[in-house]
Amino acid sequence: MGGRVTRVFRTFNVESRARREISKEKPTPAPRHRTARLDATADQPEVKEKILRKDDRLLTLLKDVYVESRDPPVQVKDGGGQRLPCKQEEKRLTKLGHLGALDVKKVSKGKISIVEALTLLNNHKLHPQIWTAEKIAAEYSLELKDVNSLLEFFIPFTVQEFPKETKKAIKS
């Protein structure tokens, strides 16, 4: 609502306001200061002549100067076997399901892939006596508290099919 009101005021009489701004007198720029150096050389021909003349004494001194430049030899710094310590994570092979081509092959210990998570949630849902939290933690190298949280807060989807004879079914 507020945008409509401001747009009305903004677009009100736009053309006449634009013409008024265009027709205003332009301000005159400030006068530039004359530089003394350029004006002095333009007026005095002997200064120009002195600038263009070659000095023989300076030329002979310049011919005696010889400059030789050499780069220092490049030294490659070898670490001498000292390397920064890198964090080595223990990896384990995943327990591949039917989506083996889509799933990752190696996972760090303490973590699981998406396919493994769905598989263990489904196994626990179908057979909770066999797939307990302790067994899942041992099987997938996970901590028990993480497995308990996973089983508590994540539930896989269930597919329910309703019989066609119910009253809610649409008859065609």
From TrEMBL:
Q: Could you provide one GO biological process annotation from this protein's UniProt record?
A: mitochondrial respiratory chain complex I assembly
Q: Where is the signal peptide?
A: none
Q: Which InterPro entries match?
A: NDUFAF4
* A GO cellular-component term linked to this record: mitochondrion
Q: For bias kind Basic and acidic residues, which ranges apply?
A: 17-27
Q: Where is this region: Disordered?
A: 17-43
Complexes and interactors: Binds calmodulin. Interacts with NDUFAF3.
Q: Which family does it belong to?
A: Belongs to the NDUFAF4 family.
Q: Which PANTHER family match?
A: NADH DEHYDROGENASE [UBIQUINONE] 1 ALPHA SUBCOMPLEX ASSEMBLY FACTOR 4, UPF0240 PROTEIN
Protein name per UniProt:
NADH dehydrogenase [ubiquinone] 1 alpha subcomplex assembly factor 4
Which organism does this sequence originate in? Pachyramphus minor
Gene name per UniProt: Ndufaf4
